[in-house]
Protein: Lipoprotein signal peptidase
Amino acid sequence: VTELGVMTRRVMATIGISILALDQLTKQMVRMSIELYDAIEVLPGFLNLVHVRNTGAAFGFLNSVSIANKQLLMTAIALVAMTAIVAYARQVEPRETLARTGLALILGGAMGNLIDRASAGYVVDFIDVYWRTYHFWAFNVADSAITVGAGFLILDMFVVSSTDVSTSA
Structure:
């Protein structure tokens, strides 16, 4: 492993751990300051802080599975996904900054939600974005990091990779 590779891994670890810490801190703050199912209006007509428990996955997936089986299944899926992310990250070149940053964000977010699911059987969601009567699904810092990380990977695949192909032709 080159010096650049070691430095890049340290940066990735720092990003992932920072996301994990921010996620856990914000969820704890919500648990302590907002009653379950209550809302605090932050930006009228657009943003509330809420306190909800998500026992399923994104968009209500697996909501009909019994709690015990769901917790085990969701934990197993998260562990397999995190193992795959780490394995893939080892294959990514140190100079592929966008891909490595995306993987670090996804891993940090996955760890944050995994801790909640494994310890409590649910994830605390608290960001409620809405327009008029339409409310998007509530989410948290971990979900945001996973989404941004996935966006970085998509950008890396389509924008950076196509640039590499066109410059090598």
